[in-house]
Amino acid sequence: MKIHDIPGFPNPLRVRIALAEKGLSDQVQFVKVDLPAAENREAAFLAKNPTGTVPVLELDDGLFIGECTAITEYIDNLDGQPTLTGRTAREKAVIHMMQSRAESELIDPIGDYFHHATPGLSPALQAHKSPDWAGREDFGRRRRVKAEAGMRYFDGVLRDQPYVAGDQFSMADITVLEGLVFAGFAQIPVPAECTALTAWRARVEQRPSVQNPA
Question: Which residue has the higher pLDDT, 135 or 22?
Answer without folding.
Answer: 22
